[in-house]
Design goal:
By secondary structure, this protein is an alpha+beta fold. The longest helix is centred in the last third of the chain and has 35 residues.
């Protein structure tokens, strides 16, 4: 096509300028990365929840700008404190209070005074107030300062741990302190390594990595800019997952385009013409895949939890950026680099050696020979893996959220050994002031409540702090919260609401469960609609969607076995199944889209069965590489010491591998072989269509 070569060359030159501009802007922006704060969980709750209402009412009370932190003191040998040691600890607590104007002794932590001794005299508690103004970053800074002061001032033979709600907030914030950088660096290294292994070239991997990296930098700043205009607060979890999505999906799209481009270079001399053909042949798959993921993530805007909406915004911007850069920028970059970018395996015209296709040609032949057996065997494997879901449990307590053991958890365990487990994090009750005495009497009668004391009050509202015998965030604590809400509802004119950390966690779990029941059907409808439009068939989309759901159930079952028997996790974090489902359905269907789109092109000249097997042979290598890469990228989430992200990464990683190696490689081709042309019903075959 020599007559068309100049136009692509001029276009490539123009786009090359855009490449340089985008990369330079991305690098400059990267030097000033957007600041991401860790928002309060209660701020992200639906405004109808009792926890959110309690927080709003408490904001009008005296001392509302502080939260109680608890310092737990214990001797190294576990013996009773002496009178002299207690005097020293009181003086130390006073110095900590005097070190900052925002810190003062308080009785708001379950009615505890500045220093309280356990019944056996082996544990002492000091309760101090930590300022929450202007944001939670201040809480983290103050907790870290207190811990540092204690480390340098404690008498020999005595240990301390800072716990309570502010300490848990600080430790959670520390999980994401520098997390974006750590996660990004690890992701880049994993992607670079896998690209080098895939391409076996010291040069080629740099091109897609640079393009996708620029997309990630641009998307992070665009998301931060949009967030301020749509009322969304980005957090570390949302931006971290968005980075993984950009690198995972963007590199997958790049792999697909580069594989088709290299294939075309074997047939034509003009690299610009080869790229134009490759882009035309893969654009449908890339756009369909990106659209599926984008719309699926966009459904998160309908969630009631603010954190889920933040993930939706960051994810949508990230996927659109990755798709746009791969579609518009990567082709020009590759074409301008020329054939030598593939060195040492430079594709030559007429050289049709395809070593990667030999393995998948054998697999295709085996599947075509006995497709019924392959279908039965594949479904049996998926069903057996899914059986493990029968024993699946959800819900982690506050102390079970971390893969490591932060100081707040250590302090909570020491405290629970000598005091009621809920002493460090009271259940907060806010009632109308005139009904406070009656509410106190009712709350004290609730099973699981150790003490109830008045914390703060004004003419309208009174805050009551209830000490629970259950550990914060545990199932038992949730039971206490539920019982308190039911009992207090009977107090006339009290307008009581129950908040605090355990109540906030309970309300977040309930909101997440409601969001799951709303969004899962929507995601399935989105994926089905995209497949219907792309394939022009009814049977094929339904089968593809069913196989992806089956692989999700199998991945969840396999992951649960790993979590129970290897990691010894007590349960899945709330929301993990939903997020894993979202990513697996939206991303897992990509590989079926890549395969079946190629099969649709091959169907015209070869027929349904041969066309599918030809597609498997042609795309097997690149799709397998893409699947392994995406699974590895999601596994990177485990570098953060938070069980929720680790569990999401493992489930999605296993699911992607199942989709890539089992569902896409053997199950879908076998289904197509069994059904023949019925696989494409009601679409009719066009024999004049050229692959």
């Amino acid at each position: 096509m020599p007559g068309f070569a100049p136009a692509p060359r001029r276009l490539a030159s123009a786009v090359a300028t855009v490449i340089v501009a985008v990369v330079v802007v991305a690098v400059v922006l990267g030097l000033r990365a957007p600041t991401v704060t860790q928002p309060s969980v209660v701020d992200g709750l639906p405004h109808s929840s009792q926890s959110w209402l309690a927080a709003q009412r408490i904001a009008s009370l005296p001392g509302a700008r502080t939260e109680a932190a608890v310092i737990v003191y214990r001797r190294d040998d576990g013996r009773r404190f002496s009178a002299g040691e207690l005097t020293t600890l009181r003086a130390l607590s006073a110095r900590l209070v005097a070190a900052d104007e925002s810190v003062a002794p308080t009785s708001r932590s379950a009615g505890l005074g500045p220093l309280v001794l356990s019944p056996d005299g082996s544990v002492a508690l000091a309760s101090i107030a930590v300022s929450t103004v202007p944001n939670l970053n201040v809480v983290t800074d103050r907790i870290l300062a207190i811990r540092a002061a204690l480390a340098s001032s404690l008498p020999r033979g005595i240990q301390s741990a800072v716990t309570g709600a502010p300490a848990f907030t600080a430790d959670l914030g520390q999980v994401f302190h520098g997390a974006d950088h750590k996660l990004l660096v690890t992701t880049v290294l994993v992607v670079a390594l896998l690209l080098i292994v895939t391409y076996r070239s010291p040069l080629l991997w740099l091109v897609p990595l640079a393009v996708v990296g620029a997309a990630d930098q641009v998307s992070s700043h665009v998301a931060a800019l949009l967030a301020s205009h749509v009322g969304v607060r980005l957090d570390g979890a949302a931006t971290g997952i968005a980075d993984v999505l950009v690198f995972g999906a963007g590199t997958d799209y790049a792999l697909l385009l580069i594989a088709r481009y290299r294939e075309q270079l074997h047939g034509v001399e003009d690299r610009f013409a080869a790229m134009r053909t490759a882009l035309a042949k893969t654009s449908g798959s890339i756009v369909a895949s990106g659209t599926t993921v984008t719309i699926s993530l966009a459904t998160l805007f309908l969630a009631s939890m603010a954190g889920t909406r933040a993930l939706g915004l960051a994810g949508v911007v990230g996927i659109v950026s990755a798709m746009a850069m791969v579609y518009f920028v990567l082709p020009a970059a590759l074409a301008l680099c020329g054939r030598r970018v593939f060195w040492p395996l430079v594709p030559r015209v007429g050289d049709m050696t395809r070593r990667d296709g030999r393995v998948f040609a054998r697999i295709a032949a085996a599947v075509a020979k006995r497709p019924g057996v392959v279908v039965a065997g594949s479904l049996t494997l998926l069903a057996l893996a899914s059986v493990a879901n029968v024993g699946l449990r959800q819900g982690l307590s506050t102390t079970q959220q971390f893969t490591a053991t932060p100081e707040s958890v250590v302090g909570q365990r020491i405290l629970a050994s000598a005091f009621p487990a809920g002493s460090s994090v009271p259940v907060v009750i806010v009632v109308a002031t005139r009904s406070a005495p009656a509410a106190v009497a009712v709350a004290r009668a609730v099973p699981g409540v150790a003490t109830v004391k008045t914390a703060a009050a004004n003419a309208t509202w009174t805050e009551l702090d209830a000490t629970s015998t259950a550990a914060p965030g545990s199932a038992a604590a949730f039971g206490v919260v539920t019982s308190l809400r039911s009992a207090l509802a009977t107090v006339g004119h009290a307008r009581a609401v129950v908040g605090g950390e355990s109540a906030t966690t309970l309300d977040a779990e309930r909101a997440t469960n409601r969001d799951t029941w709303l969004l899962v059907p929507l995601v399935l409808l989105v994926v089905l609609a995209v497949l219907l439009v792309l394939l022009g068939s009814l049977v094929a989309p339904l089968l593809l969607l069913a196989t992806v759901i089956a692989s999700f159930c199998a991945a969840l079952g396999l992951a649960w076995l790993v979590f129970v028997h290897v990691d010894h996790y007590p349960a899945l974090a709330t929301g993990v199944p939903f997020y894993a489902f979202l990513f697996l359905v939206a991303l897992g269907v990509d590989y079926n889209i890549f395969l079946v789109s190629r099969a649709k092109q091959e169907r015209g000249p070869r027929g349904a069965v041969e066309g599918m097997m030809t597609a498997l042979t042609s795309t097997g290598g690149v799709i397998t590489s893409a699947g392994v890469l995406l699974a590895a990228v999601f596994a990177v989430l485990s570098v953060l010491p938070l069980i929720e992200l680790t569990q999401v990464g493992v489930i999605v990683g296993l699911g992607v591998l199942l989709d890539t190696l089992l569902v896409r490689t053997v199950l879908v081709p076998a289904l197509a072989a069994v059904l023949g042309e019925r696989f494409w019903w009601p679409s009719r075959r066009r024999v004049d269509e050229v692959a």
